[in-house]
## 1
Amino acid sequence: MGSRPFGIYVHVPWCSSRCGYCDFNTYVPGALESASPNTFVADAIAELGIARDLIGGRAVPVSTVFFGGGTPTLLPADDLVAVLDAIDSQFGLARGAEVTTEANPESVDAKYFDRLRSGGFTRVSLGMQSAASSVLATLDRVHTPGRAVDAARTARASGFDEVSLDLIYGAPGETDEQWRQSIEAALTADPTHISAYSLIVEQGTRMARQVSSGALFPADDDVLAHRYLMADDAFTDAGLEWYEVSNWARGGVDGSSFCRHNMGYWHNDDWWGVGPGAHSHVGNYRWWNHKHPGRCSASLAEGELPIAGSEALTQSDRELEDVMLRLRLAEGLPLDRVNSGQRHRVQELASDGLLDESQLTRGQLVLTRNGRLLADLVVRTLT
Ligand SMILES: C[S@@+](CC[C@H](N)C(=O)[O-])C[C@H]1O[C@@H](n2cnc3c(N)ncnc32)[C@H](O)[C@@H]1O
Ligand code: SF4
């Protein structure tokens, strides 16, 4: 540790209700006998303490913290601040650390944001998804169409300079016009960052069952590609630059509004994941926690980390991951990181218009706009 930036991810596995498209590790309060949101803070603080003891004198200051979920903002703001305080006292927050929480629009208000801001949070990422009520209904979202934009403005008024919105395109039944309205609505909030994800119909979800029974029809790839380009045009016109396939942010010389925590994932830096199902990556090791909150509590009560599995990464694993992750970034991948066996394919991809020719002459692999639409294919071709 210490040779790369160090982040901490805190997974809050609770949501007031379950959205039909979501397969994240999350539970509705009352669904589990052996765990509830009430024990989350004590468990997270215990986990941080054990992690700190294990790391010993090698701890490095924490550059970024990210509370994700689930719905972190289902917990009282004081709970999130208590966990952040524990991170600071156990590890030490680096000066200027980025501290983000994901937030569901219906679960936050001015008082909540004020408490987070005074407690040291610097960034809020709101799950807006859509501005169309029929799309929100298909996604089982419980907030009204305007709620996310209002929440973004409230966060700004509470002193959050960094406000991000998550959008989803390609929900069954969504029209181009509804997507255009969602893009425009998001931009009226003047966010510093937007993530726009193509809806994935995840196996095992309620939405997957609705699709297989014929009750819902997923959007086809051409529709998804068109919606991606609509978003890219609108965000770019509004001064947000793409910096990862699904992410746009205000730029600036220091890339000021990029999500530094997520950049840590894409650069394969070090991070420690706290909470049920959280994944960690430090040096050449990766490990992941038990998904069940009750199972995690039981390990922590024994004074043990709730680790379900781990793996040591070989040099070739790391090189492969580097290609997969960095190719998705606007900064691109240095040509010499591509395995020599695959390097002959680079020129082919550039000739097909998927890699930027002018960047290639500088020894850097950067996706073109068409390349971003086919990013998975480019990655597969080069790995
Ligand atoms: C897992 S959620 C957690 C944050 C918060 N609970 C929320 O719903 O906004 C993080 C983001 O993942 C995205 N997401 C979740 N499931 C998805 C899916 N099946 N396809 C595309 N995006 C998805 C949503 O945009 C969401 O904002
Ligand atoms: S999308 Fe967000 S609110 Fe919905 S179930 Fe998943 S984590 Fe919870």
## 2
Amino acid sequence: MSEPQRSILKLEGVSKTYGSGELSVTALENVTLSVNGGEIVAIMGPSGSGKTTLLTIAGALLRPTVGSVEVCGIDITKMGESKLAAIRRDKVGFVYQSFNLLAALTAVENVSLVIHKRASNGRTPPTDRALEWLDTLGLSHRANSLPKKMSDGEKQRVAIARALAKDADLILADEPTANLDSKRGHEVMQLLHQKAIELNKGVIVVSHDARIRQFASRILWLEDGTIREHE
Ligand SMILES: Nc1ncnc2c1ncn2[C@@H]1O[C@H](COP(=O)(O)OP(=O)(O)O)[C@@H](O)[C@H]1O
Ligand SMILES: [Mg+2]
């Protein structure tokens, strides 16, 4: 708790236009946003308001048309593709609406895949670390299950275990509760909230579900690509 605030993400004056000429679509317009360690920021807004575009830019998967992006104090705006790939690998964990688990791999294999030897403290093998994460998320009994044998709530928890196991400072979740019933959705949000605080991560959760409000440190409302602080 006494740790100084650390900057995990800064977007400044970010705009994104897809395409050009008459067919161009401006998905984001002059978005400024920062996320510190221990914060869980909820981004809400209607379909088409630019939420996924914002997350994709924050996660170094897409470049803004205008503006700057900083991840963990590193300005990535003009970074070349191979360095960007390293930022994505080392700093960012994604949680998707559709889980994105590899179907042929078990839960523990899905999680251990992202653990670099470097991040595993040298000693503990990736598989053991993956098992610890699954245990933390209450999924020990599912370690050797394939995704098709798991419920949607379990799959989403494996996806969160994977994002946390990577030891990424920035966790980006795009509609992580959209495929879950309200009880499971509640659990998943509580977990993201708790881990953000415990591990001093920066978390952005995008959703159009008003129930995520209670877990957020801050709520931002996105409308037609423009962001507004919300209470
Ligand atoms: N790859 C793309 N090419 C062209 N237009 C896109 C692309 N991705 C998104 N858009 C457009 O940008 C706007 C914002 O989309 P998106 O970021 O997906 O919003 P949300 O996630 O809030 O639904 C929408 O008008 C959408 O049609
Ligand atoms: Mg979206």
## 3
Amino acid sequence: MISLKINSREHLLDVEPDMPLLWVLREEAQLRGTKFGCGIGMCGACTVHVDGQAVRSCSYPVSAAAGKSIETIESLGTIDAPHAVQKAWIEHQVPQCGYCQSGMQMAAVALLNDNPQPNDQDIDKAMTNLCRCGTYDRIREAIKSAAREIS
Ligand code: FES
Ligand code: FES
């Protein structure tokens, strides 16, 4: 049994220690906002936070998350009270198909937590997630808007 704290709730789960955190979140905790893309740590669709750091959950064994605080897109905001990043995403109409966007938002929040006023270079360096729809320019502008709102 592995004890996990996910979005401030304790879970006691009977899973193999090397199971990727992504599948624990999606299949055991029923949190389906975190997406499967490549499965090899390249695309970032599966990005969540572990102790505040962005990690690619498809390549992160659940045993490494035991005793740590895991946050998923479901914890970020609500329709009535969206996170500053989500407000900026709406303002800039960022998503196209939307598949990559929960991972993008989690990566953006981790960036802003580390660096509340990122410049273009900081954003390009931190935002290594892939978007097949090519929403990168809107993501960059939305992150700058969120940074203004947070400051
Ligand atoms: S699904 Fe995890 S990085 Fe692509
Ligand atoms: S919005 Fe379609 S993959 Fe990013």
## 4
Amino acid sequence: MSTADESLDILTGLYHLGYKKIITTPHIYNGVYNNSYDTILPGLERMKTVIKQSGIKLELEAAAEYYFDEYFLSYIENETLLTFGDRYVLFELPAMSKPQQVEDAVFEMTLKGYKPILAHPERYSYYLEPGFESLEKLKSMGVLFQLNVLSLAGFYSPKVQKFAHQLIKNNWIDWVGSDMHNHRYFEAFNNAIQNKYYEKLCSSGQLLNNTLTEL
Ligand SMILES: [Fe+2]
């Protein structure tokens, strides 16, 4: 989002949909989204003030969505990852080719007491094509899966949508989240949460999102 006004507009929209707490996870993707502690944390403080002034009762926290690259590996190594809740770390993989060190990095994160969450498992071609069994290794290592709600409404592609449905049917989704880059995403989000699969997911008792408001 480009301005505090636009962010406030979207946060207000989410508040009116009934959300009480938002954890914003800006991309940390060197060379594409050059975010860090130094951009995210002051941004969080600024938005907290804006929310307070607006009078809406919305809790805001920030972490990040880490792109899996050598920088991410060094943040794991140095234990400088931004986390939310109980040491949760949200990370994403490249869309088209699976890095060889994924399992090693997951192991390392776990060893350091982090709880890794894979963002949008439904959107990677190398998991999508062979089917959900290809995600079994990560699942067995304790990686939690965060569905991107927009996938349910076919925002990305029909194949991604179908895979998202399969993952829900298979009870493999632990978290829900959404891209929210601008108003267009908010409209799509609003649409996606009407989806029957989203309702199924919310009533499954599986989701960990609500645990964050009880901490
Ligand atoms: Fe992502």
